[in-house]
Amino acid sequence: MTQSQPVRPTQVDAVIVGAGFSGLYALYKLRAQGFTTRVFDAATDVGGTWYWNRYPGARCDSESHYYCYSFSEEIRKEWTWSCRYPAQPEILSYLNFVADKLDLRKDIEFGTRITSGKYDEGSHTWLVETDKGETVQARFLITGVGNTSTPAKPTYPGLENFQGELYHTALWPHEGVNFSGKRVSLIGTGSSGIQCTPLIAEQAEHLTVFQRTASYSVPARNFELTDEMRRKQLETYDDWRELVLASPIGMSFPVPTKSAMEDTPEQRKAVLDKLWEVGGFRFMFTGYNDVITNPETNNVFVEYITAKIKETVKDPAKADVLCRFNHPAATKRPPLDTNYYETFNRDNVSVVDIRSDPVAGATEDGLTLTSGDHYKLDAIVFATGFDTVTGTLLKMNLTGKGGQTLADKWQDGPRAYLGLCPQGFPNLFTITGPGTPGTLTNFPGCIEQNVDWIADVLQTMRKTGATEFEATAEAESKWVQDIIEAADQTLYPTVDSWYMNSNLPGKPRVFTAYLNGMPSYTAVCAEVAADGYKGFEIRNPAMADAN
Ligand code: N01
Fold this sequence. Notes:
With 547 residues, this protein is α/β, with parallel strands linked by helices. β13 and β14 form a beta hairpin. The chain is globular and about 70 Å long. The chain has helices at residues 21-32, 49-52, 73-78, 88-101, 191-203, 227-235, 237-246, 265-278, 282-285, 295-312, 316-322, 340-343, 391-395, 406-409, 443-464, 473-488, 518-530, 541-546; strands spanning 11-17, 37-40, 108-109, 114-120, 125-130, 135-143, 165-168, 183-187, 206-211, 218-219, 336-337, 349-353, 359-363, 366-369, 374-376, 379-382, 398-399, 428-430, 468-471, 536-539. The protein contains 18 helices and 20 strands. The protein folds into two domains: 11-150 and 388-546, FAD/NAD(P)-binding domain, CATH 3.50.50; 159-230 and 243-382, 3-Layer(bba) Sandwich (FAD/NAD(P)-binding domain). The structure holds 3-acetylpyridine adenine dinucleotide. Residues 59-61, 148, 154, 169, 187-193, 195, 212-213, 333, 354, 383-386, 498, 503 line the site of 3-acetylpyridine adenine dinucleotide.
């Protein structure tokens, strides 16, 4: 007997897109406040990025005690993390636990993609269409689609003729992959490629890593948490929560106060030696305050990591390729690893510089480089990242006032006041959208702040009977301009990266994140609200009638 589907309303207060960290919290918060919702996710279950990214070695780079929700003491006390950096299955279990605990699943429609959204200027509502052919009318459209959710891969000539297996790290088969006895190439050396390299190498007959850009990877130094550690974490929760709230990157780290240039070379080495042993993001972000703004300090990090790679990788030819840096440290998202460089000491692992000798195309049995070198392969793994930040938002085909599409509006780069509200698209909220600090911070923290702020807007509108909330063009322009000016004070614009919106050809090159950190962003958002939502126009139904 098939279970009948619940009848869902076609008119709701809010449509929420996504059932990862963002969508789950938005659903919980809005539902608790009595708003009606419809929640959609293309996946068949909750988890967002942690649902899709099941490649071997997928693990969080933020530490478990803060890479989680903070809004519920009960959840915090009931859930137990096993280690410093939980692996993908554990984070997915956590999100399932939260969904069950809060009874969220019943209100989420899985396996359903939003195909378009059109703002109706007469009724001040969004008409949202799904790939199931349904149209839902909602006062508010809230996206929780993540910044790394539309996978991207190269279109090599002849790839369709390749007879072996093709994988993308972000679309990994749920049943796993067995690479035993296979010749595998892995393309891409960002966080995903660096995490799966050691595990694929353990299985494959031979693994060839195709590297376009050398990464500055830092040891994660994962460890199991003991009961004593967990007890202490709970006991000292208030203290480290204070650190999290004061941290620009939303992590429980002390904020560094001095430049590397204030230390002698010996002092710098001592600082970096200690942080290298501690591992994780603390290496890049707790030693000195100017790694991203001062080329001299940055160079201290470049030289230090170069020396570490050369010390670790025994074959000088491999080490040379792994150190062919073309950008300052931390200007691309810094990866963390477990035995990445050590893996190149295995006889069955090689590394090829495809910046100097790019892939020319694929054949039935492998990949050929521009030089004519040919690699016979049984499997190709693309760890080539995503159409980041804007990709998934644009795929939803949103149309705002005056028939303007989001694609048109963002043709020179994404624009949204506070990173949450694109002008001309009233009642649309983009959780951790372009212009929030999201991509530069611990995501769950930014998500909670964004959702709380959005929920307050909805409450205010309900109280006052207002029906339309729209950023002004002036406020939005200043927000975007300030972000560009802040980025120009840093080394970020010196390299193409997904932070710069320039990791794929054809995307407008513009910095996409609020740079002054989470505490500053939180304060600005609070001020905007306290000031009667300065920078926004709030309209009431009488105006809708007049339209
Ligand atoms: O993707 P990436 P990712 N030919 O874009 C290369 C989060 N994340 O999936 O730098 C050849 O970082 C590309 O080279 P280049 C995290 O925020 C988190 O690794 O463009 N190579 C690069 O080396 C992360 O930043 C976690 O020259 C090509 C790689 O592929 C974000 O997701 C784990 C190419 C892509 O690196 C994305 O990470 C994993 C081409 N045509 C991911 N196109 C954790 O928290 C791209 N590349 C643990």
